[in-house]
Write a structure and sequence with these properties.
Elements: E1 2-6, H1 13-27, E2 31-36, E3 50-54, H2 68-83, E4 87-91, H3 93-107, E5 117-122, H4 125-128, H5 134-145, E6 149-152, H6 155-165, E7 172-173, H7 190-195, E8 201-206, H8 215-228, E9 231-236, H9 242-251, E10 258-262, H10 268-273, E11 276-279, H11 288-295, E12 300-303, H12 308-311, E13 318-321, H13 326-338, H14 340-357, H15 360-374
Parallel strand pairs: 1-2, 1-4, 2-3, 4-5, 5-6, 6-7, 8-9, 8-11, 9-10, 11-12, 12-13
Helix pairs in contact: 2-3, 3-5, 8-13, 11-14
Length: 381
Amino acid sequence: MKIGISCYPTVGGSGAVATELGKALAKRGHQVHFIVSDVPFRLGEFNQNIFIHEVDTVSYPVLRTPPYDFSLAAKMADVVQQFELDVLHAHYALPFAVCAFLAREMLRGQSNSPPVKIVTTLHGTDVTILAQDRSLKEVMRLGMEQSDAVTAVSKNLIAETRELFGTTREIDCVYNFVDPAQFHPEAGSSARSCLTSAGEKVLLHVSNFRPVKRINDVIQIFQRVHRQMPSRLWLVGEGPELANARKQVVDSGLEKSVHFLGRQDEVASLFAGADLLLLPSEKESFGLVALESMACGVPVIGSTAGGIPEVVVQGETGMLRPVGDVDGMAADAVHLLTDEALYRRVSLAARRLAAEEFNVERRVAEYEAIYQRLCRTPASV
C-alpha cells in the first residue's frame, strides 16, 4: 500500500510513534510518504520505501503568520495525486486531520482512482488541551467526523474524547508500541559511567517539560530519595518548565546530583542506564516513555493519571500513586531500590509485558488491518 503520514517532527510521543510506525510499515514493504514541516527526529537511517515531502510556506505581507495549514493541505493533495496514495494517516486531529480532509476535497473529481482514505490517530494533547478552546473544538470535530477511521492510543483517551465531543462514532484503541530490539536492558549507557559514581542509583525523567509533566514533583521525589541513598537524576528534554526546573534544583542544593541532558534523539541507552523512571504527570493519555523504560527492564514510579495504568501494572511493572503524592512516590522508589529481589521481579515483569503486549509488530499489524478494511469501502463524504 501507499501511505502518507503527517505528524509533528519534534520531540514527543506522537511524533515518535508516527515515525516508528512509518519505519515499520516501510520494512513490511509498504511505500511510506512523510508529509511534514521537517524531517521527523527519529527517522534514522535510509530506507528505500520512505519518502520525505517537506511543506513550504510562503509569507504574505497581509498575513501575520505564514499560512502553514493551507500549505500542508496543498502539499498533501499534491503527494496524494502524484503518488496515488491509498491512505493519509494524520497523527493529531489538528491540524493534520483537517488538512487531510481539505486535501481530499481539493482532489474530488480530478481522478478515476478512489478518494484517499483518512485515518486520524488521537494522541492526547489534541483532545485534552486543544479541544478546551471552543474556537478549535468544532474544527477538530470536523476532522474526526470526516475521517474514515479514528484511533486513540488508550481506552482512557477514547472515554475522554466521547465525553468532550459527545461523539458516538467508532474509535479504535491501538496502543502505542516499542521495538524490543532497540529498547532492551543491554542497550548500554556510556552516560552512566560518565555521570555517576559506583554505588549511585539513577532516576530518569524524559518529557517535553510542559506543566502537565509536573517537573516540580519529579525534583521533589528525587530530593526525598537522595536523602536516603547516593543517587543522581537525569532530566532529558526541553520545554517551558526547563528554567523553573533549573532554579528549583539550585534552590534545593541538588545541582551536583541533577544532570540536565537536553533534547536527545536516541534515548534507548539512557533508559537502559537508569534504575527508575519518574512519571508523575497530571495528564498522560498513554505514557510512551513508560513503555520504553519498561522494555529496558526499568520500573516506573508514576501517577494514576489518564492511560498510565493501562501501561504500568501497579505493583507488577511499577508503582503508581495519585497525582501529587510525592511522598508516596518517593517511598515506592526507595522500596524498589533497596529490595533487590523485588526490583528484579518488577524489572523482569516490565520487560516481559512490553515485549509481549506492546510489541511493534503486533501494533503495526493492527494499523495495517485498519488500512486494508478502509480500502475495501467507500471514502467518507
